[in-house]
TrEMBL record:
One of its GO terms (biological process) is arginine metabolic process. The keyword Transferase applies. Belongs to the DDAH family. Gene3D superfamilies: L-arginine/glycine Amidinotransferase, Chain A (3.75.10.10). PANTHER family: DIMETHYLARGININASE (PTHR12737:SF9), DIMETHYLARGININE DIMETHYLAMINOHYDROLASE (PTHR12737). InterPro entries: DDAH-like. This is Amidinotransferase. It comes from the Bacteria. Keywords: Hydrolase, Transferase. The active site is at 169 (proton donor), 263 (nucleophile). The lineage of its organism: Bacteria, Bacillati, Actinomycetota, Actinomycetes, Kitasatosporales. GO terms for molecular function: amino acid binding; dimethylargininase activity; transferase activity.
Amino acid sequence: MPGSRVARRRRYLVCEPRHFAVRYAINPWMHPDLPVDVSLAQRQWRTLIGVYRDHGHTVETVNPEPGLPDMVFAANAAVVVEGRVFGSLFSAPERRPESVPYEAWFKSEGFEVQHPESVCEGEGDLVPAGRWILAGTGFRTTREAHREVQEFFGVPVIGLTLVDPYFYHLDTALFVLDDENIAYYPDAFSPGSREVLGRLYPDAVIATREDAMAFGLNSVSDGRHVFIAPEATALAGRLADRGYVPVPVDLSEFHKAGGGIKCCTQEIRS
Ligand code: ARG
């Protein structure tokens, strides 16, 4: 039913890519010897922020810190549900210091922050989806963290095992369309996890490997508009068939670090 989807206004937290670079390799996308065009990255990022604002969303920023080239990936810094903030404990030592400025930002905004005891990478692996939280493990966030998250929020956490190193975070293999549905790439998951997703979401939008490799699943949906990588054309077509409105935004420079639209976007859910 095209046209029937309803957008809900969102509050996003982002971090300007002033110090963005690929200096170390912690996923298969990262090649420190290949150049990154920082001014192109900044233009692409500013376009994304402009598009969010044009669609009525609130965008807030945390100050980037020198020496933290992945800090632009705000999604990894926390997961926020009903105004409660569960922070991050990054797997890679290079990223661990990012928690400090992000947690400071949340505290300065009046939020209390729970700091995890086990490795946990925020919305990279913890994806609130209506009545439950979908939680990835296999590369970064641990099962122990899933337990901590369920205990903290009192929301059921559904553990899903990722098996393909190109899709090392759950938000590279799956995104939430609205409270009822998701889009995902089945082969990124273990057989049992695929079955779980099939039971929970029999009407899910299924993506191809090409869509997934184009960061098409690292998308952000407001319930109607889906901010999506322009190369994920098959997926965009399927979304349009279901009544969503794909809004292409090119963040290709960030793909060199293994990130895309969703990675750059933390949602603050009140
Ligand atoms: N270079 C970063 C890392 O490997 C990219 C993070 C992308 N963020 C995401 N939500 N998938 O940690």
